[in-house]
Every structure is written in structure tokens, then in C-alpha cells.
Specification:
The protein has 582 residues and is an alpha+beta fold. It contains 22 helices and 13 strands. The protein has helices at 25-40, 43-53, 61-78, 81-94, 99-111, 115-128, 133-145, 149-162, 167-179, 183-196, 201-213, 217-230, 235-247, 251-264, 269-281, 285-298, 303-315, 319-332, 337-349, 353-366, 371-379, 575-580; strands at 390-391, 400-405, 408-413, 421-422, 432-438, 446-458, 461-472, 477-486, 489-490, 492-496, 499-503, 509-513, 531-535. Strand 5 (432-438) and strand 6 (446-458) form a beta hairpin. Helix 13 runs parallel beside helix 15. The chain is globular. Residues 1-15 and 523-582 have low confidence and may be disordered.
């Protein structure tokens, strides 16, 4: 799904050179007028006031460059891209040492889908101001867009070290982990981003995506709801929560979310095609076809809309018509997992069981979080074991063995055929299982699988990483994957009745409520669905063993844990917040 790019122009105090020369009272008054107009949202008036200020012929080159930069930012907000580029270019000629203008121009180039050109500007901004957090963050986002994950991880980590309480680089690094197939590591960074700014909606939305990938649907829905509270008009949040509701077999709530998404953006086919699928599942066939036909009208090349319409045909028993639509979907997008899922559904309805199993496995290989395909396989009496699985000899322990699929690794066991434990690597190398431990009541059904998570370059040479996956065998899910050891640093795990508290390597406390346990004088009623809560120590930037690989020291563990700082009342936004909020 498309993500909106925002112009980021934060300058940390002292990190970017700014002019200190004199300025006439008239020009200063115009600049203040422009700033006030921007605060009021009157961007056109701001441009006019900046233009008046530039008429002062006594302005020094550096002062004129700063005003041109500010006018360029205002022009971007007005959609005047050409004028903005002209102002940025003129500012660069007048004051080539002004890092902020390269950062801002880079963001505009990125928004114009010119990432390679944007990189040059971010590089220049960082050379001029090595402590410029926004430039590191923006360069990282550009690398992520270019699928340069290693470079993106390095820049986000550097930004986090420079500004541990800034949520944006934490959330950005989480996006890299998510793109690399590490949803549990991603969730850790998103959690820290939310702790840094409790109103930072992208952190909740992204953490929800990570939880969907990890199979924690109920928690994902809660996070999407939090994101919507802080950003109630975000189209993407409603669409994503709607699909989470569908995966949770709640079509009625999904329909409401998709309807709200359509209200926000009635020209997007995504809302219509999603609501069409939900209507079909809810047996509202006429409404389903109306929405799906509208989606195809808006985007005749929407492979997803054709796939969903094929599914609605299948639900109505029109197998041949549905097959034609799914063929169209695969022609438009040969790698669409939803199309393979629906194709499997159609083949199952036609009695072609083996082919149905094959196509649903293809769907899951492309998108492991596609619950409908997994449910379809279970209905057919099959389990998902990709044809591409390769066993790693000598890497297992006991009944567990290690398999790889592409660049990802999983622990599997014949005793738990429906469970695949992702082995998220924290460093270079391949995983090796170390120990499998089953907990006793009241944590019956909880297991901990420890594994070698790779090696990184530390201050004294290579440091081994040990990870631990917390598994709920009752729910059939992986609750979390935590760093257990890095070199000589060891996390402290405390088991208390139905709860696990981990004093992590970075000084952050992670808490997992695994079982609801009644007081000791009452019998235990049974296992509850796992839930997860976090409490973060003040100022902790997040565990990042990867940072050592890029010259950024990882935060050490140990020491006392301070409680999180009290939540302060939300302050009114200042002009600096509106123009330069990171």
C-alpha cells in the first residue's frame, strides 16, 4: 500500500550552520508575518510575506538563502513544485554550506520519486552537519525505498543514537526489520517509538502490521484502533484494521472500516475492493459485486479487485466465471498471493484438491500472514511446508529442526506440525538451536526455544548473539522473540505466576502476560490468550546489536531501571512544531 512522504526539515540546535548577520527591521517583520501565516495555515500569505522580505536589497547572501529555503517549504505545501525547486537551487548557490536546504530539497526529490537524486542531497547535508538527525532519518528512508536495507538500518540506528527520544527513526528501523521478515524485532522498535511519543500514530499502525505478520490478530486490531484515535482520518489505518477484522472472522466490523476508508478517499479502488470482499463473506452478494465493479472501474488493472470478485463468484457457486476473473488477476500480477488463495478456493470447489493445496501453499509462500490460505489448507487436511524448505543439518535440538525458505529460517517439529517458529537473526551467520524448555503450571503450554542468532562486530571483536522465542503451544503462536545474550551481556528473565518480565540488554523492561492466574487459594480456570505489555525505562533507545556493525555502539544492559516519565499534558503546537517537526 502506498505510504505518504512528508517533508522533514528538523534542525537540531547547534547541528546546522545558520547565518548570524544583521537584518533590517522591515525584512524581519515580513519574516515574522510569514511565520505567523504558516502557523494559521495561510500558506499563500506566507509565500507573499517571504517574497516581500526578499525585496530587501541589503540582505546578505546567507540570510537571503534561508528565506528562500523557507519560501520553498511553503511552496511545497502549496503544491508549487517547480517554484520550490527554483528557490532551493537559488539558496544553494547563495549559501552552499546551509545543510537544511539540502535536507529539504532531498525530501522534495524523494516525494517526486527521484530517490537517487535525493540521496545526493542527504549526503551533502550530513557532510555539512554530521549531527543532523533529520538528514540521517531521511537518508535512511530513501535507502529503504531503494531496498538498500543494510544502509537504511545503519542510518536509522545512527539517528536513534543521536536522538534516542525521537520516534521517527525508531519507527523507521522497525520498517526495515519488517521488510527483512523480522516482525518481532520490528514490534520492539515500534513499541519504543510509541513510548517516545504516545501520540505517534505511525508507531501503532506499523506495530499492528508487525503483529499481523506474527499472527497476533487481536493485538493488531487494538494497535490499529490506537492509531485511529490519534490520526482519525488516515485511510490506510481503516483499510488495514478492516482486513485484520476479516482475518478475525468479523466481517461486520470490517465493512464499517472499509466504508470509512471510502469516505476518506472515494477515488481509491482499495476501499471498494476491500469492502466488496467483506460483503461477499457476509453473504451480501449484490453489495459485493457493486463495490468490486466500482473498484475495477476506478482501476481496470487492479489484480486484487479481480481476485476478490472471483472469490465472490466462488461463494455464489459460479466457479467458471470466477476462474476467468482469477486468470485475469494473475495476468495482471503473477505474484499476487490473494490470487493464488482464491484460485485454490475455486479448485477446491471444483474437486481439484491436490491443485488447491498447491496453490494455497503458493499463496502462503508469498504472504505467510494470509490467514485465509492457511485456514483453507487446514480445511483440506494439509499443513504448510513450502517446497522450498531446506533443512540445515546439525542445527536442530531434540525434536526441533531448522529449515530455511529463501533468506528466512524457521524451527519446526513433528510434535507441533501447525507451528513454525521464525528464527530472526540479529547478526551474520545461520541459526543453531540451543535449548527447548517447557514451563510447568501455571505456565503449562508455554515453551522457550533458545537459538544462536548470529554474530556482530563489537569493541573487542566478534560477539555472539543468543535469541529466545517464547512459544504458546495452546494458542499455536509465537508470543515474542527476545535478545537473551550479546557477548558478556545477559538479559534477566523473571517468571512470576503467569507473567514473564525481561530486563533487556538495553535497559528496557519487556513484560509478557502469558496466563491469567487466579489467586493461589482459588483453582486455575485455564489458559488465556497471550497478551503483551511494555514498560520502558527513561531514555532507552532500543536494543540494536546491528548498530555495532555500522560503528554505532549498542546500548549496554545492567544498572537500575527507572520508571517511565510521567505523561505531560499536550502543549499547543508552536511555529517550530508546524514547520520543523521531525
Amino acid at each position: 500500500m502506498r505510504r505518504t512522504l512528508h517533508l522533514v526539515v528538523l534542525v537540531l540546535a547547534g547541528s546546522v550552520a545558520v547565518p548570524a548577520g544583521a537584518i533590517t527591521p522591515e525584512a524581519q517583520s515580513r519574516i515574522e508575518d510569514a511565520a505567523a501565516a504558516m502557523t494559521r495555515g495561510n500558506t499563500a500569505q506566507a509565500v507573499a510575506s517571504y517574497t516581500e522580505a526578499l525585496r530587501d536589497t541589503s540582505l546578505s547572501n546567507d540570510r537571503r538563502a534561508v528565506i528562500l529555503n523557507d519560501r520553498a517549504v511553503a511552496n511545497v505545501r502549496l503544491g508549487q513544485t517547480r517554484l520550490a525547486i527554483e528557490d532551493f537551487n537559488r539558496a544553494a548557490q547563495l549559501f552552499p554550506e546551509y545543510a537544511a536546504l539540502y535536507n529539504n530539497r532531498g525530501n522534495l526529490l524523494l516525494a517526486l520519486n527521484l530517490p537517487k537524486e535525493a540521496l545526493k542531497d542527504f549526503d551533502r547535508a550530513i557532510v555539512l552537519a554530521p549531527g543532523y538527525v533529520a538528514a540521517y532519518n531521511n537518508r535512511a528512508a530513501t535507502h529503504l525505498k531503494l531496498n538498500n536495507h543494510r544502509e537504511a538500518l545503519a542510518d536509522f540506528t545512527r539517528a536513534i543514537k543521536l536522538s534516542p527520544q525521537s520516534p521517527a527513526p525508531l519507527a523507521g528501523r522497525g520498517r526495515v526489520h519488517l521488510a527483512e521478515g523480522r516482525p518481532h524485532a520490528a514490534a520492539r522498535d515500534f513499541t519504543r517509538a510509541a513510548a517516545a511519543d504516545a501520540r505517534f500514530a505511525p508507531a501503532y499502525r506499523s506495530r499492528a502490521e508487525a503483529k499481523v505478520e506474527a499472527g497476533q490478530l487481536e493485538d493488531a486490531i487494538e494497535d490499529y484502533s490506537r492509531a485511529i484515535v490519534f490520526d482519525p482520518n488516515n485511510f490506510e489505518s481503516f483499510v488495514l484494521r478492516g482486513h485484520a477484522y476479516l482475518a478475525f472472522d468479523n466481517a461486520a466490523s470490517a465493512i464499517k472500516d472499509f466504508a470509512r476508508a471510502i469516505e476518506i478517499d472515494p477515488r481509491s479502488p482499495i476501499g471498494y475492493q476491500s469492502r466488496g470482499l467483506a460483503h461477499g463473506i457476509a453473504d451480501a452478494t449484490d453489495d459485493a459485486f457493486a463495490d468490486l465493479n466500482k473498484a475495477i472501474e476506478l482501476d481496470p488493472r487492479s489484480a486484487t479487485a479481480f481476485a476478490y470478485r472471483a472469490h465472490v463468484y466462488k461463494l455464489g457457486g459460479q466457479i467458471e466465471v470466477g476462474s476467468k476473473d482469477v486468470e485475469t488477476a494473475l495476468k495482471l500480477d503473477p505474484g499476487l498471493p490473494e490470487a493464488f488463495w482464491v484460485k485454490g478456493e475455486l479448485e477446491e470447489a471444483a474437486g481439484q484438491t491436490e491443485q488447491a493445496i498447491e496453490d494455497m501453499k503458493k499463496a502462503l509462500a508469498l504472504k505467510p500472514s494470509l490467514r485465509q490460505a492457511r485456514v483453507g489448507l487446514e480445511r483440506l487436511g494439509a499443513t504448510f511446508e513450502s517446497r522450498d524448505d531446506q533443512e540445515l543439518p546439525g542445527a536442530g535440538t531434540g525434536e526441533w529442526r531448522v529449515v530455511s525458505r529463501g533468506a528466512r529460517f524457521f524451527a519446526v517439529s513433528n510434535e507441533y506440525p501447525k507451528l513454525r517458529v521464525p528464527l530472526e537473526m540479529a547478526g551474520e551467520g545461520t541459526p543453531r538451536l540451543l535449548e527447548w524448555e517447557l514451563k510447568k503450571p501455571p505456565l503449562k503450554g508455554i515453551g522457550v526455544l533458545r537459538f544462536h542468532g548470529g554474530a556482530i562486530s563489537g569493541a573487542k571483536g566478534a560477539e555472539e548473539i543468543e535469541m529466545a522465542a517464547i512459544v504458546d503451544l495452546v494458542a499455536g503462536t509465537v508470543v515474542g522473540i527476545e535478545p537473551q545474550k550479546q557477548g558478556t551481556k545477559i538479559a534477566t528473565w523473571t517468571w512470576d505466576e503467569g507473567k514473564l518480565t525481561i530486563a533487556s540488554l538495553d535497559g528496557v523492561t519487556d513484560e509478557f502476560v502469558l496466563r491469567n492466574v487466579k489467586p493461589k487459594d482459588q483453582p486455575v480456570a485455564g489458559a488465556a490468550q497471550p497478551q503483551r505489555r511494555y514498560t520502558s525505562s527513561e531514555g532507552a533507545p532500543g536494543w540494536a546489536p546491528w548498530s555495532d556493525q555500522y560503528g554505532v555502539p549498542a546500548q549496554g544492559g545492567g544498572g537500575s531501571r527507572r520508571p517511565p516519565p510521567p505523561r505531560q499534558q499536550q502543549k499547543p503546537k508552536t511555529l517550530f512544531d508546524l514547520l520543523f517537526k521531525f
